[in-house]
Specification:
It is built from 5 helices and no strands. The chain is mainly alpha-helical.
Amino acid sequence: MKQFNLVFAILFALFAILQWNDPDPYLWIPIYGYACIVCFMNYKNKYDLFTHIAGIIFCLGFGMKLLFVRDGVMDWMNRYDSENLVQSMKATKPWIENTREFGGLLIILIVLVINIFLHKKAGAK
């Protein structure tokens, strides 16, 4: 569990750094920073259920927005025929950017949920 959180704390820190060139770094640096801090705190055995639940609620809410917004994930799948997301690192099309952002939220959501289950499992022993 400690190694899992250390790896994801490092990955989320790198993701936050890579957002510097993003069109909206003011939004994504704090999002990945939050995930990094949560994983680092778990690594240090400072688990807090509230921070996990708050992150999950945020990811679900913002993810739903990106899923259904104009030029969001649903449009990427239906209107733009699931166009290649990695054709260029510079996303010039909003549906590409929104779908990539959705993927980032999904990664954070999965890590937070795994942490809750791992913590419950470790506490049951």
